[in-house]
Amino acid sequence: MKRLFILILFALLFFGFVSCGGSATNKSLKAIDEITTKAEKEKDKLTDEDWKKLGKEMETHLETLNKAIDDDELGMMDRLKCVGIVARWTKIAVEKGLEKVEKETGMSAEELGKELEKAASELEKATGEMND
User: Fold this and answer.
1) Cβ of 132: how many Cβ atoms within 10 Å?
2) What is the pTM of this model?
3) FRET pair for 108, CA 20 to 30 Å: which of 23, 31, 70, 125?
């Protein structure tokens, strides 16, 4: 009985180590979390080149994760983690993009939005007149 218990214990440990190993999917999930955390902590210090590098790294790991999702290799909890991390990354990237636009145009995001609405309205009028 004792041998059977030890055998079962070793089998469980073995399968536990194998299933929790360092698969490419787990590594990519960990990598996108680390990339996002770095971007959150250092967003004001990162250069444009740093942002490009982080974006390429993120893209590479997201390709791996998307393939795993398509092949149904990613569990529900890992999928939710992935969604949460990508949402954080998107928030940081949008904020950084808006800062860059504001810096380059000299307009706030609100002012730029109003200008774009005005341009869209004028374009709509112009194309409407052409169709008449």
Assistant:
1) 5
2) 0.66
3) 125
